[in-house]
């Protein structure tokens, strides 16, 4: 009985790890394609490539004093440009940053 429970727990964690690896590979491929597109933009516009970046992949970061004042900002993962402050929107299934 205990062996079946441990086997079930191990299978569950195995599935979670495999799913995480698949998501990581998909995100890496998307990033590779976006970087290739940005390199093409850099060749076309050598001095203003950041302005022509489509900013498809966004990362959110927080700055400020923890627990006192924090500001959430958006960053482009491809060209590393700051996209300004993020806004918190309310959706059907909860709040999300845009």
Topology summary:
Layout: H1 2-44, H2 49-52, E1 58-65, E2 69-76, E3 82-85, E4 88-91, E5 94-97
Antiparallel strand pairs: 1-2, 2-3, 4-5
- Using the CA coordinates, give the radius of gyration: 20 Å
What percent strand?
25-35%
Based on CA inertia axes, which overall geometry fits? flat
Tell me the series of helices and strands, N- to C-terminal.
Answer: HHEEEEE
Order of the strands making up the biggest sheet: 1-2-3
- Considering DSSP H and I runs of 4 or more, what fraction of the residues is helical? 40-55%
List segments where confidence is low: pLDDT < 50 over at least 5 consecutive residues.
none
What is the overall pLDDT average? 89
Separation of the first and last Cα atoms = 48 Å
Main sheet record: 3 strands, antiparallel
How many strands in all? 5
Structural notes for this entry:
The chain is flat, with a radius of gyration of 20 Å. By secondary structure, the protein is of the alpha+beta class. Strands 1-2-3 form a three-stranded antiparallel beta sheet, with no helix packed on it. It has a two-stranded antiparallel ribbon with strand order 4-5. The protein has helices at residues 2-44, 49-52; strands at 58-65, 69-76, 82-85, 88-91, 94-97. The chain starts with a helix and ends with a strand.
